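User: For my dataset I need records formatted as: sequence, then structure tokens, nothing else. Please produce one.
Assistant:
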Amino acid sequence: MWRGVCLSANMLGMNAEPGSTAFSLLLLLLIPLYLVALMWVLSRLSGWDWLARRFSETGVFYGESWRWQSARFRGWFSYNNCLKVGASSEGLHLEVMRILIPFRLFHPPLTIPWNEIEVETGKAWFGLFDTARFRMGVEEQITMRVYGKIVDRVRRAAGAGWPLYHLERMDTNG
């Protein structure tokens, strides 16, 4: 692996052998570029980018919110302990927490109105945990799944805005 990096650096006239100053500088450039590319790809594949096109939050969210939450988008892309999830009677609020600045790239805060969301609730892991699957955006249909106490917290904060879809036995794979 290093050989390919060294060959590329040599083509630029740099001596980028492991341990050299040029190698260190090259790594200092490549690591941030890698993180930026990773956040861009994650926003596209998870569906956050699609949701941001219509539901980007431009103001301050007024409602209850909970930090250090986790969610899984489209069944594959987990945002573990990095989300601030909020709810009010108007909609569901999602944002990557502000202290995680590099991870906020390409992930603007979202507020999705409840009339653009379908919710299925149920139990997961042999009935031990509450779970909810949100289908967000009438056009986009991006799925997000959350587990545990956050399900009831969001339901209570949403109040009358909470969509009335309920499945007692939900498939926990998607």
